[in-house]
Specification:
The complex is a heterodimer.
Chain A: H1 2-28, H2 35-43, H3 57-66, H4 79-89, E1 99-103, H5 125-129, H6 147-151, E2 157-159, E3 165-167, H7 177-181, E4 187-191, E5 196-198, H8 206-212, H9 222-226, E6 232-235, E7 238-241, H10 252-255, E8 262-264, H11 287-295
Antiparallel strand pairs in A: 1-4, 2-3, 5-8, 6-7
Helix pairs in contact in A: 2-3
Chain B: E1 34-35, E2 41-45, E3 55-56, E4 63-64, E5 69-72, E6 81-82, E7 87-96, E8 102-110, H1 131-140, H2 153-157, E9 167-172, H3 181-188, H4 190-204, E10 208-214, H5 218-231, E11 235-240, H6 249-257, E12 272-276, H7 277-289, E13 295-301, E14 309-314, H8 319-325, E15 333-338, E16 345-346, E17 360-365, H9 382-386, H10 393-402, H11 405-410, H12 421-425, H13 432-457
Parallel strand pairs in B: 1-14, 9-10, 9-12, 10-11, 13-17
Antiparallel strand pairs in B: 2-8, 3-5, 4-7, 5-6, 7-8, 13-14, 15-16, 15-17
Helix pairs in contact in B: 3-5, 4-7, 10-13
The chains are: A alpha+beta, B alpha/beta.
Chain lengths: 296, 458
Amino acid sequence: MAEVLTTLGILVGLAVFFATILAIAYKKLRVEEDPRIDQVEEMLPSANCGACGVPGCRAFAEKVVDKTVNVGKCTVSSPEGIDLIASFLGIEASKETKRVARLLCAGGKNEAHHWLEYKGGMSTCRGEAVVNGGPKACFWGCLGLGDCAEICDFDAIAMNDDGLPVVDPEKCTACNDCVEVCPKNLFELMPVTQTLIVQCKSLLEGDLAESKCSVACTACARCVADSAPGVISIQNNLAVVNYELNNLTSPAATRRCPTDSIVWLEGEAQFAPEEEIGLPTGRVETLVDLKNTYYQ
Amino acid sequence: MAFGGNIAAIKPLSFSHGVHPEEYKQLSCNNPIERMPFVAEYILPLGQHIGAPSKPIVRKGQKVFRGQKIADPEGFVSVALHAPVDGTIDAIDLFTHPNGQELPAIKIKCDTFSSQLVTPQEAGDPENMDLPEFISAIQEAGLVGLGGAAFPAHVKFSIPEDKTCQYFMVNGCECEPFLTADDRLMVEYAEELLDGVEILNRFIKAEKLYVAVEINKQEAIQVISEKAVSRNCPIEIVPLKVKYPQGAEKMMISAILGKEIPAGKLPLDIEVLVSNVGTMVAISQYFRKGQPLIERVITVTGTALGRPTNVMVPIGTPMIELVNWCGGITSDAARVLLGGPMMGMVQKRLDVPVIKGTSGILALSDHEARVMTEYSCIRCGRCVDACPIFLNPSLLGMLAKKGFWDEMAKNNVMDCFECAACSFVCPSAIPLVQHFRVAKGFIKEKAAREKFENRNSV
């Protein structure tokens, strides 16, 4: 009996001892945290995308309460959500435009020429790109195997029948993951207010570019003539939009484009999610064909 | 000791690990080096070497002569470029480079009525030169390592003051199956080869000179050893075992000296310098004949090629012309590679030019280039036994499939020189080297991004 009592006594003693330490630690080492941080965090979309430049929503909430970062930096929440947080904290929300990832290529399977049949090996864009730059005739073009759709954490990218990634502007948080993974550096994060987009990166001169892809920019400069002076310029055989003059852009620039490589987008996705008519896929040339075309 | 007094070892030396692919060298190893008629156009990419691309010093429509300089080196790690034929500059524009990119290049229209004699360049007398003069002469000659990587030769030969070169090795291993260009070069240009070594050793002052040759090139061993005896050249011929990748710099050093280069270090850190046989011949030709690097020997071979042979071609010749000169490709040709079957680069286009680093053109038939079904790793460990630098390709492959690039960097994937021995032995046909190339790309990009961010934050 005595052993049982001693044991109990020791255990209770230990419990009281540690409880005292904990109680003192609670009083002495307590960190005062603003309760608003938790509340702001709950009002944020919890996407943890990092598009605001802060690692995660919790850290962003801390900075917002601290007033080191404006709540408007979160482009993922809806404007109403931002206003709610702003009025909760009694601050003014800055107006940041939502950004989305835009693909600077429109040459899918039906538009771009293939010079090689890629068989076996890795079936990812990165894998194709290390084999002589991929099978496409155009060195700059989208390889269409969906590394970007794979890496997207927000389900915002889906590959369509044409082999092009369709970015859903609603779901895109501009987190930069697709920009980093694309072996051809085709993605660019653009504010949705940038409505005039040249969907091509080929630096080849007109006919040569068009021989490789039917939607290539041929640098014909019709868009330059059709828009306000200085808005579009031709640099290295490619039309380049000067976004500093973004408010001067108009859909007129796209009307006479012979290859539809320049488009006007008012916040919608770039490509149709599914092709309505099933066109034949791009023909793959054999080595013998290539030999013949070279001599013609 | 069958060949005389300068054979270094009776028993062929080698490194541990490695693989034994079938050789296929008999297709072209007995065909003497031939020349082909000049073709209509030559395309010379400005970036044929590792480092900054050259800077063109000609303009469109200008007449150029065979051997004339048409581009200056841009910075130290860069070399000059010379016109390989008499003709006119047709364009300076973007052309498809053998690496698949569209890069700036100079296109020369060949002059049909020209004698195509080389216009000798002022090389200077190697007997009365000091090291800086020699280095700049080599840079002006457009010399790069002709083994395949095309690293500017003058950068390799500029030995820093705190380092010395004790051993100089000439690499004549040519361990890639199919290729026989170096083999034929050693047999037919042995005199120039030894002359090049003698010129170079005047400046690098190595104590020991070696020529490493795999023992399947008996004729080359014999010819070089005879020539070395008659010239009284203090060079030793080292016969090496026939094994892949025996010709890789690190493997050759470990076979001959038994020393290993520490990860991320250069051969000079263990007082060794290695250079390809072609580079030696080119040095001799520049100083003796004034001919800069405007042509090289290329093996055009493969089972899907009409007439496999070795050809001395001007740099910039479109691949298709070369292939057609060698009998053209057969109807079952499925894949054309620049280089050997192990490390060569698949080509999607046959009008890309031959560049300074091209050692061979290989046409493979349908049957040889068949697609193998990929299975899961069964952890048989054959790749571990094959890897010449003792990495664990099996583990790296599994990490690559999961996208764990940082873990791969910790497991030294950056030391992999892509010899493809692991992919060659893998019974599950896992494209290991392709995975590693992708991983290296990610790791390099990440490092560059971090560097950029650090610079911006400071």
